[in-house]
Specification:
The protein is an all-alpha fold and 200 residues long. It has helices at residues 15-32, 40-63, 67-87, 100-120, 126-145, 152-181, 191-199.
């Protein structure tokens, strides 16, 4: 059985933006893990670069008429840039770390945004649905970590974040290979196609 031909409209997020999302999320998670925390300047550079890349591709997606990609990339681009003021600047001696309730509220609101993306991803690519769901769980767990003294929610949030990063990397690689071959070699799982076939 031959692989299905690739439709140009089935990709939701550009591969470079997905790679930037994966890198930004990974560096943020490693910065939360004390023994594995990278240098502060390196974390800041990656977060700034990742945020700018996502903003750039978000604006390009908006101009090209892809509102879903723009609605995802533009807010996440601002998220990484705003996160610098909470996590990077205080480590450089600029300002102070926010208190636990501030970080809980901040991350909870972004988890709510990820939840909206997750709910809107049903009947679309399973890979994209997994990405949004993992980001939602990661942000929610990391927000809860600021209200508890143990490390349970931190580990849970990092685990979900690593899953989200790997999923973003998988989607980026799959889209690149599929586009170069002109057919779906690496599956992303399109629920809409499966349901449409069942409805016929």
């Amino acid at each position: 059985m031959t692989a299905p031909s690739l439709r140009p409209t089935q990709h939701e997020l550009p591969a470079p933006a997905l790679l930037a999302l994966a890198a930004s999320l990974l560096i943020y998670l490693f910065s939360l893990l004390g023994p594995y925390s990278p240098p502060v300047l390196l974390s800041g550079i990656i977060l700034v670069s990742g945020g700018i890349i996502q903003l750039t591709y978000g604006l390009r997606s908006h101009q090209q008429g892809h509102p879903r990609a723009a609605a995802t990339l533009l807010p996440f681009g601002f998220f990484w840039l705003s996160l610098i003021s909470y996590e990077i600047f205080p480590e450089l001696g600029i300002g102070r770390h926010p208190n636990a309730m501030t970080m809980f509220s901040y991350l909870s609101l972004w988890a709510l945004f990820a939840a909206i993306l997750f709910l809107g991803s049903f009947r679309r690519s399973i890979a994209v649905q997994t990405l949004y769901g993992a980001i939602m769980c990661s942000l929610l767990a990391l927000s809860m970590n600021h209200l508890r003294d143990d490390q349970v929610f931190l580990l849970l949030g990092c685990l979900c974040g690593f899953i989200a990063s790997l999923t973003a990397l998988y989607i980026a690689v799959a889209q690149t290979i599929n586009e170069s071959r002109g057919q779906e070699v690496i599956p992303l799982g399109h629920w809409n196609e499966q349901w449409d076939e069942q409805g016929k």
